[in-house]
Design goal:
Elements lengths: L10 H7 L10 E2 L1 H8 L3 H6 L20 E2 L3 H11 L10
Antiparallel strand pairs: 1-2
């Protein structure tokens, strides 16, 4: 048996993991909004929403046109991966 202690996440760790990105409005983005923000083509955005795409963009289900909820936890996590987001925590700790 291993004598290593199990590290359980603290409340602060959980809060940091759920820190929302401060994305510009509106809350619901169309493909053009997302493409402009990321500096990619609209075609790239559409390709990343297709079935089988690598790390597909979370979209709003059930609406007629492709839309993204910028406050959705899944979209926020996806965006953090795209931006290379690293939460460095408080610098003075």
């Amino acid at each position: 048996m291993s004598s290593q202690a199990i590290a359980f996440p603290t409340r602060r760790d959980v809060e940091r993991a759920h820190t929302a990105l401060d994305l510009p409005g509106p809350r619901v983005w169309k493909p053009k909004h997302l493409a402009d923000f990321l500096g990619v083509s609209v075609h790239w955005v559409y390709k990343r929403t297709e079935r089988g795409a690598e790390d597909p963009i979370p979209r709003i289900p059930g609406v007629g046109r492709l839309s993204f909820d910028t406050q959705s936890p899944l979209f926020q996590e996806w965006m953090k991966r795209q931006l290379g987001y690293v939460d460095r925590g408080d610098a003075d700790e």
